[in-house]
Amino acid sequence: MSEAQETKGPDLKAGIGAAELPEGGQVAGQVDGEAVLLVRSGGKDFAIGATCTHYGGPLAEGLVVGDTVRCPWHHACFSLRTGEALRAPALNPVACYRVERVGDRVFVREKLPAPTPPPAAATGPSSVVIVGAGAAGNAAAERLRELGYGGPITLLGRDRSVPYDRPNLSKDYLAGNAPEEWIPLRPKEFYEEKRIELRLGTRVTAIDPQGRTITLEDGTSLPYGALLLATGTSPVRLDLPGADRPHVHYLRTLADSRAIIAAVKDAKQAVVLGASFIGMEVAASLRARGIAVTVAAPDERPLGKVLGPDLGDFIRALHEEHGVTFRLGTKAVEIGEHEVRLESGETLPADLVVAGIGVRPNLDLARAAGLRVDDGVIVDEYLETSVPGIFAAGDIARWPDAYLGEPIRVEHWELAERHGQTAAANLLGRRQRFADVPFFWSQHYDVQISYVGPGKGWEEARLSGSLAKRDATVTYRKKGKIVAVATVFRDRQSLEAELAMERGDVERLEEVVRG
Ligand SMILES: Cc1cc2nc3c(=O)[nH]c(=O)nc-3n(C[C@H](O)[C@H](O)[C@H](O)COP(=O)(O)OP(=O)(O)OC[C@H]3O[C@@H](n4cnc5c(N)ncnc54)[C@H](O)[C@@H]3O)c2cc1C
Ligand code: FES
């Protein structure tokens, strides 16, 4: 669903003066009508397509790190040498061009052929079975093939839909701004072509680590050489009278999002229960569809526990500007046919209710198989569980975070995909440490909040810049140490903060947040 960047800047085919491209320099230009980024790094010139293959972010505004460039929007990382998407959330490469220096000019020449994947190797486990065809599972299956794994891969998911872009379900798709074809991560044929056996609508009910088999819902069993668990989370259900009424919805799957869209057609007044990311994004999307929305939640402010008071108040004001009303400090106690009754005694009219009151990791399989579990499947830095040969990734994995130096579990799209990519390497025995810094974004109307860092247990959230001017940073600290940085329209700073955390460079990180 990437859109071509507007082409501006010099025609790089006609060449530019070498002085315009010093070491560490970047020039955004065009070649045959396509946006191209020309970079000089490590004494070498590189030219690649400047439009990120995730959602079309402008790579020319990204951060060059060695022979890679990171996208400013959601931090995907591309190789400048080959154009390959090295790190999610982009899954497709960008084009790569030949660059030539002639005298004191630099010319971008023809597009280079896409790099050929390594030949399929007969090494590695006898087969790989992946339980969960979401962000992590899909990314792992793809990366196994990119790394040249030639054995059988089975990707099992209880969902009936081909792996899809879950974050979009509460955003553009729900708002009616994203066509259906944006939602699948890949067409079905992709999996056939890559010889990834995609078994949808298939629930795994048990794992036998000794016998190296899994059992499916229909009672059949499937052997595995190596196993990846990526079962994600499930929404917490309401426990109150009327919670089972047909107009009460949750949002985790594509089918859930479609059901809300169908319900919107006859609805005039929605109540969203929960002022979490999902709740607030749903509120924005329902407003975009023109129905009245009230958000009811026990919290003092939306997203306050994660983002702190300044961003929480900003988000509340932003939603109020768009017509959302709030009932905070209270919660639903009963859902009637046409109303929601609150603990405060108030009754809100509602012909549609969407509950976003949290999620729980799907740990039953891991627990029953005897894997170590503690608010997540415990994995080491290679994402391997307590049972050798079984790996876990994504929302369920609790891994030792390299920056914090303690185990964490997070529920972010990009992180789940990156877990999947690293787990793939380790399923093949490559012993690759997972050291990426968690990143997530959240979209509210035309404002994106980018959040980088583990964030766990922050004690202080300090605002710099101006949220009113939509140019701001919030720095989160625990015992004085920066544990996360949230930015609004300061993408470059978010990228710099990520890099400093990745390198464990606390001094640089302090410099970055000072701006
Ligand atoms: C509406 C919505 C919006 C979001 N927006 C954002 C965002 O803007 N930014 C962000 O960073 N994150 C966002 N997230 C969170 C993000 O989608 C998750 O962190 C990510 O999907 C986790 O990936 P995963 O692979 O661990 O799990 P999932 O993507 O949930 O995949 C798990 C899969 O496992 C399957 N499964 C579970 N149990 C079994 C079983 N026993 N047998 C077979 N299959 C099984 C499930 O059906 C599911 O398909 C959003 C989530 C939702 C629901
Ligand atoms: S647009 Fe580049 S990572 Fe999303």
Shape designation? globular
* Beta-strand content: 25-35%
Helix segment tally: 10
Bound ligand species: flavin-adenine dinucleotide, FE2/S2 (inorganic) cluster
Sequence of strands across the biggest β-sheet? 1-10-9-4-3-2
Radius of gyration based on Cα positions = 24 Å
3D structure, described in words:
- This protein is α/β, with parallel strands linked by helices and 515 residues long.
- It has 10 helices and 36 strands.
- Helix 1 crosses helix 8 and helix 9 runs antiparallel to helix 10.
- The model has no long low-confidence stretch (mean pLDDT 96).
- The structure holds flavin-adenine dinucleotide and FE2/S2 (inorganic) cluster.
- FE2/S2 (inorganic) cluster binds next to loops.
Give a summary of the structure in a few sentences.
By secondary structure, this protein is an alpha/beta fold. FE2/S2 (inorganic) cluster (FES) binds next to loops.
What's the helix and strand layout?
Layout: E1 16-17, E2 26-31, E3 34-41, E4 44-49, E5 63-65, E6 68-70, E7 77-79, E8 85-87, E9 96-102, E10 105-111, E11 128-131, H1 135-146, E12 153-156, H2 172-175, H3 188-193, E13 196-199, E14 204-208, E15 213-216, E16 221-223, E17 226-229, E18 233-235, E19 248-249, H4 254-264, E20 269-273, H5 277-288, E21 292-297, H6 304-321, E22 325-328, E23 332-335, E24 339-342, E25 347-349, E26 352-355, E27 359-361, H7 364-368, E28 377-378, E29 390-392, E30 397-401, E31 406-408, H8 413-427, E32 439-444, E33 447-452, E34 460-466, E35 471-478, E36 481-488, H9 491-502, H10 506-514
The chain binds flavin-adenine dinucleotide (FAD) and FE2/S2 (inorganic) cluster.
Flavin-adenine dinucleotide binds near residues 135, 157, 158, 232 and 278.
